[in-house]
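From the shared-data thread, chain only:
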Amino acid sequence: MDYLFLDASFFRMHPGSPAEPVLAAWGITTDGKPAFIGLAPGTGESADAWHDFLQDLQDRGLASPLLVISDGNAGLIGAIEQAFPQALRQRCLIHRARNLLAKVPAGMQAEVKDAWWAIFDTGELKTQPSPGLVALIDARIDAFAARYQATYPAAVKILLTDRAALTAYLRFPACHRNRIRHSNFIERTFGETRRRVKVIGRLPGETSCLTLVWAVLDRASRGWRGLTMTSDGLRLLQDLRRTLLDPPRQLRPAAASQPAGTADAVA
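Structure, as tokens:
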């Protein structure tokens, strides 16, 4: 599994209880095929709930991906870093944009939204990953911060928090970037599920909720597009796999040579 997407959605499934999360995992395999990986109820979006979910996936054979894409839930981020310490982590740019725009007056949101997406526009730079590309986006982030710091400091603070996770996707093949910089597709599918249960109000129970959500996600996943794996892209992913997941071991220093005559003395 090269790319792992994690998200949760809330449903009312127990009498007298508020809406509770259903945790989901979806991924893209090393040959570019989409795969719906797992689904489970959670007792909130705490680090423990997400850790238990990811631990179960690992116990069933899920190896570390190269990149994990998620929103900014603190418990989820903590669980990702514990379960997959060697993987890169990408903050969903769509979730981050919503967080940022929530700190901006309605009349200015269109301008700020355009400025946000201009930061990550690499349409004219369909190049392989390089330090220069990341530096360019970092410079744009700094320019955005300088432009809006005085007027919207709360929005700028959101931009600058966990900023390294905003550009992790740039280390991957250019033809994959628009798909791996957000988790919106699985969120849209969750939205379809919520619309279906809205008329019910509350599902009969946990089992019926998971059955319905699983059915909708499983059906939707059959229509999800995979990723094109070019020869250059495959080489890049293989290099990342060696660097992140299987780095070369450091050689032990050579043993000190014996003083002259030692061998003869032993003999």
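The chain has two domains: 1-92+183-245, 93-181.
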